[in-house]
Design goal:
By secondary structure, the protein is mainly α. It contains 15 helices and no strands. The two termini are about 30 Å apart.
């Protein structure tokens, strides 16, 4: 079971407090993983319409991968000093370990791409993002959010500018910077890093993050819906790239470029809205489960077990898809995948602890001594 005690001051001031695990972060990570599975195999609706409950499953479009990326930033922050990252020479060792982890994640990502499933694999982009945040590990939260904001503004411009380079790309090429644009997802990782640096383990911070995340998301989606309503055909537009309907005026096209609320579109509103949702989910999970005693710990354990081994669960579900004779795509299929993931994670964590891929990557990273 994971420790839910408050973080001791010595751990907060030190280089790492990895021994004190925030169970709510693991639960949020499980939500992201199961949501990504739903997007892959759940047969969810194409477009979200809040007035139509039958489309609510479309919430799994884009938001789980966003939550996954924000949590990557949170994890980096929690394992690199929490509110106070260390100075030299310790920070150099932390950076070296993070670089090794990045290389390992990219390598695993290419292995999963080689399975040739019809799923866009996020891990290569994920590993690149680890490398990109190495220089900013000691940057203050306010500046991290400022850089993330700049990425959010640049996101649609970069996505549209680079899209022509992928005109002849196959499934493999599309997974390398098109479906998961680096600038777009860098914004998410920076937001997560800022959240960890703000003191996620503190109750007051959790409340502020929950309220601010929900407010930012609601504001972004309202502004986007009013100023850039979705054009016809938007539900079938290519993920990761802004979309404007044929025959749009320059003003309409510009609005769709920056303000469209379409899921997984890389517009500024999409980036801000989904980042707000991710922050609110993380804050809610930590608020509900961390420091609430043994009962809350036991209730959270099934999901926390899944979230404690994200690399293993994510990779495992793609391996299973590759082994099946037909591609599964239904709510029932998702239910079996979710149940299998939870049971596997609970048993493995109960008897063996850290997930197998997490253990292997940690072993590689530990070749750089912290002392």
């Amino acid at each position: 079971m994971t420790d839910t005690r408050p973080v001791p001051p010595t751990a907060v001031r030190g280089a790492s407090a990895s021994g004190v695990r925030l169970q709510g972060v693991d639960v949020a990570r499980a939500v992201a993983l199961l949501g990504m599975m739903a997007a892959h195999i759940g047969g969810i609706a194409d477009q979200l319409d809040w007035s139509d409950p039958s489309t609510w499953s479309a919430v799994a479009h884009g938001r789980p991968s966003t939550l996954f990326a924000v949590l990557a930033g949170v994890s980096i922050g929690l394992t690199s000093g929490r509110t106070t990252p260390p100075g030299p020479p310790t920070i150099g060792r932390v950076r070296a370990r993070l670089a090794i982890r990045a290389a390992a994640v990219v390598a695993i990502g290419f292995v999963l791409i080689a399975l040739d499933t019809p799923v866009y694999v996020i891990l290569p982009t994920y590993g690149v993002l680890f490398l990109l945040v190495i220089p900013v590990l000691r940057v203050r939260p306010a500046w991290l959010l400022a850089i993330a904001g700049a990425c959010a503004v640049l996101s649609p411009i970069v996505a549209v500018s680079t899209a022509p380079a992928y005109a002849d790309a196959g499934m493999v090429g599309q997974q390398l910077g098109l479906v998961y644009p680096v600038v777009t997802f860098l914004a998410y990782v920076l937001v997560g890093l800022a959240v960890a640096r703000a003191g996620l383990e503190m109750r007051g911070t959790q409340v502020v993050l929950l309220a601010s995340g929900a407010l930012v998301a609601a504001t972004a989606y309202v502004v986007g819906t009013v100023l850039a309503p979705l054009p016809s055909g938007a539900a079938f537009a290519f993920p990761g790239v802004p979309y404007a309907a044929e025959g749009s005026t320059p003003a309409e096209a510009l609005a769709q470029l920056f303000l469209s609320p379409r899921d997984h579109s890389s517009t500024t509103v999409d980036v801000v809205g989904t980042a707000g949702v991710a922050v609110a989910v993380i804050a809610l999970c930590t608020l509900v489960f961390d420091g609430r005693g043994r009962v809350a710990e036991r209730i959270a354990f099934p999901l926390a077990a899944v979230g404690s081994m994200p690399l293993t669960i994510y990779s495992g579900h793609l391996v299973v898809i590759a082994m099946l004779p037909e591609y599964p795509e239904s709510a029932e299929a998702w239910g079996w995948f979710a149940l299998g993931s939870v049971v596997f994670a609970m048993v493995w964590r109960r008897f063996l602890g850290r997930g197998p891929l997490e253990r292997a990557v940690a072993a590689l990273a530990s070749t750089v001594p912290m002392r």
